[in-house]
């Protein structure tokens, strides 16, 4: 279980302090899928980075299965069981795809296992195993590789920041199937930041973040209708691909 208590993150812009995440509290139950949506610039990605330890909270507490990880850095949070897929994945010149997948899994993976992982995110495996993670890969290819690295190892909590961004319809459908398979097992918590209606409809609960605060949170059956009928809510959502 993930417990977030009164989490706050501030930045200083030209001498003026501004809160990006404002006193946010929520939980994610074991096996639950929580989808976070809301207007651009509302603080969703910043919240995800604070949870992963990429950014350090100014106040609040984060507990993972009862363990206080508030002071853990990104490496220790990964070891504690958090996986993270960036909205804009980093590139690693000189590192091949199969090496990256093995590092993500924490063990040397045989070729057939790497191929299965790549196929699962819509990449033709044989063409990518020995390619470098550099500028020759498109943004969509990078996004799919990033998601494959998260799926390479079982985690307590997986955070995906807009997994649908920059990928084609076929690859998007394959990713949705992956999320459905993980969710069906109920052995990992899933937190997805998304504007995509098809992903939002998969959620157990939906959390709407706007201006750094939680505007709505609740079961999909309760929150989704308000997103579909509320003009502001519809502006947060993209129609099904």
UniProtKB/TrEMBL annotation:
GO MF term list: ATP binding
Keyword match ATP-binding: yes
PROSITE patterns (alphabetical): ABC_TRANSPORTER_1 (PS00211), ABC_TRANSPORTER_2 (PS50893)
InterPro entries: AAA+_ATPase, ABC_transporter-like_ATP-bd, ABC_transporter-like_CS, Molybdenum_import_ModC, P-loop_NTPase
Keyword ATP-binding part of the UniProt annotation: yes
Domain ABC transporter as annotated: residue spans: 2-236
Keywords: ATP-binding, Nucleotide-binding
SMART domains: AAA
Pfam families on file: ABC_tran (PF00005)
PANTHER family: ABC TRANSPORTER I FAMILY MEMBER 10, ABC TRANSPORTER RELATED
Protein name (record): ABC transporter ATP-binding protein
């Amino acid at each position: 279980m993930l417990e977030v208590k009164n989490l706050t993150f501030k930045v200083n812009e030209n001498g003026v302090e501004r809160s990006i995440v404002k006193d946010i509290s929520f939980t994610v139950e074991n096996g639950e899928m929580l989808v976070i949506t809301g207007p651009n610039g509302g603080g969703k990605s910043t919240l995800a980075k604070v949870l992963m330890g990429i950014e350090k909270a100014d106040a609040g507490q984060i507990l993972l299965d009862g363990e206080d990880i508030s002071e853990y850095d990104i490496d220790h949070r990964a070891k504690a069981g958090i996986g993270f897929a960036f909205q804009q994945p980093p590139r690693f010149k000189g590192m091949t795809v199969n090496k990256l997948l093995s590092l993500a899994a924490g063990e040397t993976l045989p070729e057939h296992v790497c191929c299965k992982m790549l196929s699962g995110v819509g990449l033709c495996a044989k063409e990518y195993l020995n390619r470098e993670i550099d500028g020759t890969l498109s943004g969509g290819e990078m996004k799919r590789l990033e998601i494959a690295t998260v799926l390479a190892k079982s985690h307590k909590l997986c955070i995906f920041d807009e997994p649908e961004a920059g990928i084609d319809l076929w690859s998007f459908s394959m990713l949705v199937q992956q999320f459905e398979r993980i969710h069906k097992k109920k052995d990992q918590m899933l937190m997805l930041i998304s504007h995509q209606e098809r992903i939002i409809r998969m959620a157990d609960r939906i959390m709407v973040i706007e201006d750094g605060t939680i505007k709505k949170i609740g079961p999909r059956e309760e929150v989704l209708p308000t997103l579909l009928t509320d003009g502001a809510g519809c502006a947060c959502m993209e129609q099904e691909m």
